[in-house]
# Entry
Amino acid sequence: MKPTLLSLFLLFTLNLTKSSAQISLTARQIIDKSIEATGGQQYLQSIRTLYTNMATEMEARKVNWITKEMLPNKGSFQIVYQDRIVFANFYDGENGYEVTGGKKQLADQAEFSDKKIRRNIFNELDYLDSTLYTLTVLGTEKVDKEDCHKVKATCINGAVRILYYSKKTFLMLREDKFTTEKGGFSTTYFSGYKKYGKLTYYTDLVFGEGEKMQKATIVELLANEKISDDDFR
# Structure
């Protein structure tokens, strides 16, 4: 059967309507869909601690980055080389510290400006808090040939994040961060999403460019395990 002019017009109108529906998503709707794709708001809020072990290389040496997070805003970071902690810092909920030679000392607090206002382990939950962030849709853009929703999240502390969420999965593929912390600007790419229990999370991240490009791969991700208050003292 040959398509009639009317059927072609209806098909065109339907496709146009679908396209318009995608474009008309609000920033909050995009974030909501990302939360749902990751595991759902109820499950993410049930995660009190998150332990991440990532394998990478620094100065041609294989090292591991150990990140520990505890609600609402405690966090620690360690660089481990040959089973030895060669660098460590942590935020105890009020102040940031560095650990050198087994002794802790106050760090530059500007490096922890994001920590001071965090209320959740997962940033998307904070993005929905209008007392912390203002959200704006910036349109669409491709990341590695994949169409993405582009959302701007402006924090009350002055930091700005440009977030790229896949139109297909609503998982974040890229983040551009303009911050008041040292470093100022960074771009991070996320890929290799998979299930860690009920949590859908990236496996690989890449940031920096050229010779300064850094790649890391998650080798262990644990929710509500392996972390206590002692990790932030």
